[in-house]
Amino acid sequence: MNIIVTGGAGFIGSNFVRMILDEHKGTYVVNLDSLTYAGNLGNLEGYIDNKNHKFVKGDICDGRLVEKLIDEHKIDAIVNFAAESHVDRSLVDPGVFIDTNVTGTLTLLKAALEKNIGRFLQVSTDEVYGSLGEEGMFTEQTPISPNSPYSASKAAADHLVCAFGHSWGLKYNITRCSNNYGQYQFPEKMIPLMINNALNGKDLPMYGDGLYVRDWLYVYDHCTAIWKVLTETEPGTIYNVGGNNEKTNLAVVNFILDRLGKDTSLIKHVKDRPGHDRRYAIDSTKIMTELKWAPSVNFEEGMSKTIDWYLQNKKWLETIVSGDYQKYYDSMYANR
Ligand code: NAD
Ligand code: TYD
C-alpha cells in the first residue's frame, strides 16, 4: 500500500510514520509536511532516508502538489494529521486554524475525490464534542459542539469529510482521539511543557484550579488505533479512541514532579484559559469491540516512558526551546 501521511513531521504524525516503517514494511509513506513551528525533521531522525519513506516539504493547501504526489506515487490512501493543533494559539490567532484545518482538509478531499483515492482517514479529536460535566462520556453519537477556535476548525473539517462521503461517495473514516502524550511532543502542550519547566527549575503554570480533566492516551496507542481503522474497516465510519485514563491536570503534574524528584512548590496557579473545557472523557467501546483495539500501556507506564525519553533526549528539547519558542512562552505566560 502507498499512502500520503500529512503532518508526518509533527508529534503524532512522526510517531505514526515510525510505527509504519518499523512494523508494516509493505507500506510506502509519502510524508507531506510544511514544517511549521511544530514540524521538525529531528522527529524523524534515523527514518528520513528509509527506502519506504519520502519526505516532501509542502502545504496541504497546495492542491496541485497533492494531486501530483497522488499520481507520481500511485497513492491508495491519505491519512491527514496536518493541523494547527494548540488551543491556546487558536485563542490568539484563529485565522491560520481555518487555513490549515478547514481549507487544507478541503483541498485534500478534493484531490482524493478527483483521483478516486481508496481511503481518506481524517485524524480528529474528542474536542469536537465540547465539554462534559462530572458525569458521562463522549460516544460516537454525541452531538458535535466545539468550544474553541481549534475544536471548531476540526469540527468543520469533520463535517466536510462526511459531506464528501455523503455527496460523492468518498471513502472516508474519522478517528476522534483524546489527549495524547509521549515522545516528540512539542513543549507548548501541557505534559512536555511541565517536564521542561520542572527540569529547568521554572514555575509550572497551572491554569485556574487545576481540576480540569483530560483522558490521556500514550501516542503509540493512538497510532495503532489509526492503523487498524485504516486497514480493517469499511469506509464511512467514525471511531472514538481513548485511554480510559481520566486525570486532573494537578494529578498529572504531581506525577511528573514526583518522578523527577522535584517539589510541588513549583506549581503556580495562573489566569485560566478563556472558555476552558472542564472535562473530556471518551467511550472507546466501539473500536475495542469491533476492531479488538486496546492500549498497550497504562498511564503510569506510558508516563514513565515519556519522562525517561525527555531525560534521555535533552538535545532535542534544547533545540526546540531555543529561538522562537522563548518568544512564544513569554507572550503566553509572562503576564498570566
Ligand atoms: P503537531 O502540531 O505536533 O503537528 C502538526 C504537523 O502538521 C506539523 O508537523 C506541522 O508542520 C504540520 N502542518 C501544519 N500545517 C500544515 C500545512 N498547512 N501543510 C502541511 N503540514 C502542515 O500536532 P499533533 O499533536 O501531532 O496532532 C496531529 C493531529 O492529531 C492533528 O490533526 C490534531 O488535531 C489531532 N489530534 C491531536 C491530539 C493531541 O493530543 N495532540 C489528540 C487528538 C487528535
Ligand atoms: P493542552 O496540552 O493544551 O491540551 P488541550 O487543551 O487540547 O486539552 O492542555 C491540557 C490541559 O492542561 C488543559 O486543561 C489546559 C491545561 N494547561 C495548563 O494548566 N497549563 C499549561 O501551561 C497548558 C499548556 C495547559
Keyword list:
Rossmann fold, 336 residues, single chain, binds nicotinamide-adenine-dinucleotide, two-stranded parallel sheet, binds thymidine-5'-diphosphate, 12 helices, alpha/beta, 7-stranded parallel sheet
Task: Give an account of the 3D structure.
The structure is a single chain. The protein is α/β, with parallel strands linked by helices. It has a domain at 2-181 and 216-241: NAD(P)-binding Rossmann-like Domain (Rossmann fold, 3-Layer(aba) Sandwich), CATH 3.40.50. Helices cover 42% and strands 17% of the residues. The protein is built from twelve helices and 13 strands. The protein has helices spanning 11-23, 63-72, 87-90, 95-114, 149-168, 190-199, 219-232, 249-260, 285-290, 299-312, 314-321, 324-333; strands at residues 2-6, 28-33, 53-57, 77-80, 119-125, 172-177, 180-181, 204-207, 213-215, 217-218, 237-241, 246-248, 267-270. The chain has a seven-stranded parallel sheet with strand order 3-2-1-4-5-6-11, with helices on both faces. Helix 1 links the parallel strand 1 and strand 2. Helix 1 packs across helix 7 (219-232), helix 2 packs parallel to helix 4 and helix 4 (95-114) packs parallel to helix 5. The radius of gyration is 19 Å and the shape is globular. The termini are far apart. The relative contact order is 0.13. The mean pLDDT is 97. It binds nicotinamide-adenine-dinucleotide (NAD) and thymidine-5'-diphosphate. Nicotinamide-adenine-dinucleotide binds at residues 6-7, 9-13, 33-36, 38-39, 59-61, 81-83, 85, 100, 104, 123, 125, 154, 177, 179-180, 186.
